[in-house]
Design goal:
Layout (H helix, E strand, L loop, with lengths): L2 H57 L14 E5 L9 H15 L6 E5 L1 H6 L6 E5 L8 H19 L5 E8 L2 E7 L23 H85 L1
Parallel strand pairs: 1-2, 1-4, 2-3
Antiparallel strand pairs: 4-5
């Protein structure tokens, strides 16, 4: 295979890679648009549930003791299921380690969401369970159920009731990791000034259980939506940068192929001129003889 043929074959390979990367980037934009619509509604529902909880607990101060928010060594890390998302998973690992040191957390128990994050923490003995992460926004509902089931098992086995979630979110033009401690919104609620508490169709205890169940679901949806948006935002930016580098390689390779083609043309012209000169010399010799 000639040098030009090798270059052409490499150029075709780069074109195929570029087509795949463009398709992946476009899918990321589609998922970002879809999750944006979901997140707007979810945030409104989240705020409503939190306000109902605050109003309810302020009227039933005897239940506030059950809402005590304590430090926990159980951590859910919401990572990426797929690759090409830059430092998305590394953000979570760095944040986790800093958080554990800052809060002097001993023997943390980690539940990982996302196979790519799990691969980075494959040898980490602190990981107690791995759950597949979402590839599309439609998969988030089932994954939340899997997370709740995993938490139930952990709470039963280790006699725990508190937990934390570390996830990525987009802040302006950056993606940053942060931690969410569930029920923190209900800490230090002041007693209501109203003398008569809200009328309930359930017992106050049962109402609180149902309300907190709803709170957990809405909170998890919000965090997963934020994380999934940040993941696809990172992936789109990462692929944009990769496509720019790929285009530079394509341009350079195309230039090299054109130079080789020019060299071939020049060589052909030289060969024709040489052949012409030889023929003319032979004709001249025949005439002279």
């Amino acid at each position: 295979m000639t040098k030009k043929a090798r270059f052409k074959a490499h150029l075709q390979t780069l074109d195929k890679i570029g087509t795949m990367m463009t398709a992946m980037r476009n899918l990321s934009f589609i998922e970002m648009n879809r999750v944006t619509k979901c997140l707007a509604t979810q945030e409104k529902m989240n705020a409503m549930i939190q306000q109902i909880g605050i109003d309810f607990l302020s009227s039933y101060p005897q239940l506030l003791a059950q809402m005590e928010v304590v430090e926990s060594n159980v951590y859910i890390l919401i990572g990426a299921e797929r690759g090409f998302c830059g430092g998305f998973n590394d953000n979570l690992i760095r944040y986790l380690e800093t958080h554990l040191v800052h809060h002097s957390i001993k023997n943390p128990k980690i539940i990982i969401v996302g196979q790519k994050l799990a691969a980075k923490m494959m040898d980490d003995q602190r990981v107690i369970q791995v759950i597949a992460g979402p590839n599309t926004v439609d998969e988030i509902s089932n994954i939340i159920l899997n997370v709740i089931n995993a938490l139930t098992l952990v709470f039963t086995e280790f006699k725990l009731s508190a937990w934390n979630i570390i996830f990525n979110k987009k802040i302006k033009t950056r993606v940053e990791a942060t931690v969410k401690q569930p029920f923190i919104e209900f800490k230090n609620i002041k007693k209501s000034d109203f003398k008569i508490p809200p009328q309930l169709n359930l017992s106050d205890q049962q109402f609180m259980i149902e309300l907190m169940n709803q709170y957990v679901f809405f909170m998890l949806y919000s965090l997963f939506y934020q994380s999934f948006f940040a993941e696809n935002y990172n992936r789109a930016n990462h692929l944009d940068s990769a496509l720019e580098r790929l285009q530079k390689k394509v341009t350079c390779l195309t230039h090299s192929i054109n130079l080789l083609r020019q060299e071939e043309v020049t060589q052909e012209i030289q060969n024709i001129m040489l052949s012409t000169q030889i023929i003319l010399e032979e004709i001249h010799n025949e005439i002279g003889s």
